[in-house]
Amino acid sequence: MASVDSPVIFKEFCPLYYLLNAIPTKVQKGFRSIVVYLTALDTNEDYIAVGSSIGMLYLYCRHFNQMKKYNFEGKCESITFVKLLSCFDDLVAVGTASGRVAVFQLVSSLPGRNKQLRRFDVAGIHKSSITALAWSPNGMKLFSGDDKGKIVYSALDLDQGICNSSLVLEEPSSIVQLDYNQKVLLVSSLQRTLLFYTEEKSVKQVGTQPRK
């Protein structure tokens, strides 16, 4: 006799007021009061990362119930994408509306881990809004895509504090999703999905028809 699947139970969870209450709804800029909008989100077992319209990244530590803030120097612009990674060190990549990309290497209280906050910048390749970010599992590679179809590969040397970036692919439409595993980058744009083999620098399209 075939087993009967247990019914699916939907649960409704309450808003995270402890998180939302730690983020201001307005900030003062000179004589102006500016409304703060939440524009990007990523989570893992350790952190909840929230990007905002004022260029501030709010990072909530789930173990210590602490909220920390990180920002870009200079112009305050909307954060469009955030991507967390937990490997030997905790990393968060942030992209903005003008194409700026930064990586924050977070401080850890664990022995042998990073003891000083460090920031790496992906310099000057993207010129438009960041729409996707993807890490390699070890945190040594970061891929970023923008709404003009550019995909940039950044090699990070966390020990030496070095970030080298280069343009690896350019699509005719906006990038909507990136995922990386085993030397293969999955790329989805508004028009198509493809596999980019990073060692051979070759492209294989998924399917034959353009996306409508």
UniProtKB/TrEMBL annotation:
<dbReference type="InterPro" id="IPR001680">
    <property type="entry name" value="WD40_rpt"/>
</dbReference>
<protein>
    <submittedName>
        <fullName>TCPR2 protein</fullName>
    </submittedName>
</protein>
<dbReference type="InterPro" id="IPR036322">
    <property type="entry name" value="WD40_repeat_dom_sf"/>
</dbReference>
<dbReference type="Pfam" id="PF00400">
    <property type="entry name" value="WD40"/>
</dbReference>
<dbReference type="GO" id="GO:0005737">
    <property type="term" value="C:cytoplasm"/>
</dbReference>
<dbReference type="GO" id="GO:0032527">
    <property type="term" value="P:protein exit from endoplasmic reticulum"/>
</dbReference>
<dbReference type="InterPro" id="IPR015943">
    <property type="entry name" value="WD40/YVTN_repeat-like_dom_sf"/>
</dbReference>
